[in-house]
Request: fold
Amino acid sequence: MSQNSAATPLRVPKVSMRRRARRSVTRHWTLYLLLMVPLVHVAIFKYVPMANAVIAFKDYNIIKGVWGSDWVGLRNFQQIFGNPVFWQLVKNTFLLSFYAVIASFPVPIILALALNEIRQGIFKRTVQMVTYAPYFISTVVVVSMTIMILSPQTGLVSHVTGFFGVDKADLLADADYFRHIYVWSDIWQTAGYSAVIYLAALSAVDPSLYEAARVDGATRLQKIWHVDLPSIMPVAVIILVLAVGNIMAIGFEKAFLLQNPMNLSASEIIATYVYKTGLINADFSQATAIGLLNSVVNLALLVFVNFVAKRLTGSGVWS
Amino acid sequence: MFLFCTYLLLCTFLAVVLLPLLNIVASSFSDPIAVSSGRVLFWPFDFSLRGYEVALSSPQIVTGFLNSLFYTLVGTLISVSLTIALAYPLSRKSLFGRGPVMAVVIFTMLFSGGLIPTYLVVQELGMINTRLALIIPQAIGVWQVVIASTYFRTMIPDELYEAAQLDGCGDLRFLWKVALPLAKPMIAVVALMYAITQWNSYFDALLYLKDADLYPIQLVLRNILILNTTPGGMTDASQMLERQQLADLLKYSLIVIASVPVLLIYPFVARYFTKGIMIGAIKG
Reply:
């Protein structure tokens, strides 16, 4: 299409475009009809909320509704920036997310490299099946298990620490431990799943590279370093870039479940605060403003990170 | 030496993942007194089914389980239908305007109005505190649409469309008679993804439901385990101590009950999910 339009006068493609549209509609009208249902769904549940986000600039009043409420300009945002709690939230969100990204990046790579080294067999299959399984367990169950296992009276961890003569402590009630518990239980849950992606990349490595490495007398470690790692690098970069791009979008579900009054100074993140401000304290405008701020920052991060990825690898994560 | 270290490393991975799971399952099959005094490690101590008896005699837990089954079955059916209705037209190259439509859909993955604005929409539609609130608002997953669309586009050759068209087969009949049967593996992946997400989610229920009769099992689990509320059906345990011990035991068996459906289909899931990741990885 674009090649044609470069060679012919400007008016021609415009007309042919309209004709193309009309022909497509008459020929595929059933498909357009089919498309309507999910598109209406997307419009109602994704795009109407985006429009509703204007209440961030209003003083939302249930009786007046979204469009009838009074405009207040940037008052909600001024309140947010003037609130010391907000900066604590930003810090908690960022630290938790950043820690999660950094700590959970190398583990699946190590697992995949190790699995790739051993022969196909029952042991390999067992390790894969078992490490993959926690991914399908719900967040509620994982958090419940974490609580049970860390329980000072009956938990598994108290057995182990007791064995080494360490005092029993309630780690969940300690704000200092919250981030470790969150991140490492996350790694426990997702490492096996993430390793699958790397394993697929490793299985696609050209066998002649291994052959060449063997002829050159490379040890197995050298083979991993010079053949395996470079082969999975592009995948690893994309995964890391995506993770960094989503750093401010860290999920509500798990932090909320692991929260208790004792660890709140570390566990209160933007998402949990939005939930409490909005639905418990019913301050819709304030909560929307914080959420909107977070979404915008996150979108900017994603666009920026995609730009960097394009520069680094020659192809963006999307487009 | 190198091989030994590799095996050692893998055994560590295996142990770290498996032992906590074993501990939970073993505890759930143990005697309440043994559990409370922390004597269970990785094998049931004084084997007993007391925990499951208590769990299954609690109406709250049984209702939650049945609710979750309902949400998962109906939700998956609706989600898969909507996903195909969106993905199939978008996979047809001759469809005018598919590029912009795809962009409109993908954009929702990058930016959202947020929690409260979405809540307002659900409220406006009168879905608060109804079963619909858990099924409809989150019905379409963008990632699943990308997977389905990519599959239709790459696995069904253009010649097939042309041949069908010459034979006078319309678009919808082609979808029903040719494309869907050919896309069975993809539909399985997408359905499993939706089913597991639906079964495991608790947040929408927390957000939209007030009536405890509508709660899915995950929310029941959260209330019992994390908020430490005791369910009904334990009135037969008269003594305080015994009741506390049973409450402890119940938590373990409840964790197992809430995970059983997912673990039952896990062998299929493991195989199909790997495929699904790969389909999704082919860039459009």
